[in-house]
Amino acid sequence: MRHRVAHRKLGRVTSHRLAMLRNLATALFERERIRTTLMKAKELRPYAEKLITIAKREDGGVAARREVARSIRDPKIVQKLFASLGTRYATRPGGYTRILKLGPRQGDGAEMAIVELLGSEYQPKVKEEKGGKKKGEPKETKEAKGGEAEADKAEEKPKRSRKKKEAEAEAE
Fold first, then answer.
1. pLDDT (tens digit per residue) in 99-140
2. CA dist., res. 93 & res. 76, Å (int)
3. Among positive and negative, which fits the CA dihedral 146, 148, 152, 155?
4. Quick one: three-class SS letters along 35-50?
């Protein structure tokens, strides 16, 4: 029976598991959206949300920074956590992350997921046609593109093939 057993071991010893969670949390705070396995994502969510909750404390003092710095080793990420992420979620009472299921990974069939911070949703860019023209705009004609040089060439005699030249020479 699994009474009072809280977390998944993820097939790792304790030190490796904690290091993995620290690295995943650092990557999540840096990029605000990461792709990992579903089980790692489910373990990462409470770990990361606790760090955000510490970062959004009103005092934001040295003790809170040191508590976060135990888990996040990169000082730039700690600064980002307190400066931008803590203020972004100041009024939100929890639930700072979202897990999106992607389906099985091709190699081993492990369920994959995307973990993202709320407020950093994916916004697809509008595709443009080749040449930088948006869909629906009329295409330019050859005369408009090339200018006068191509118009002069069009006025010249069309080039004839070798067989036509020989046929004309015989006819004369």
1. 999 999 999 999 999 999 998 776 777 777 666 555 556 556
2. 25
3. positive
4. EEEHHHHHHHHHHHHH
Given the DSSP bridges, would you call strands 33-37 and 111-117 parallel, antiparallel or unpaired?
A: antiparallel
| Alpha-carbon gap, residue 156 to 164, rounded angstroms | 17
The percent of residues in the chain predicted with pLDDT above 70, rounded, is: 80
> CA 85, CA 98: separation in Å to the nearest integer?
15
* Residues facing residue 100 across a β-bridge: 114
Rounded CA-CA distance 133/168 in Å is 46
Domains present along the chain, CATH in parentheses? 14-117 (3.90.1030.10), 143-171 (no CATH)
Find tokens 């992350």 and name the residue: 97
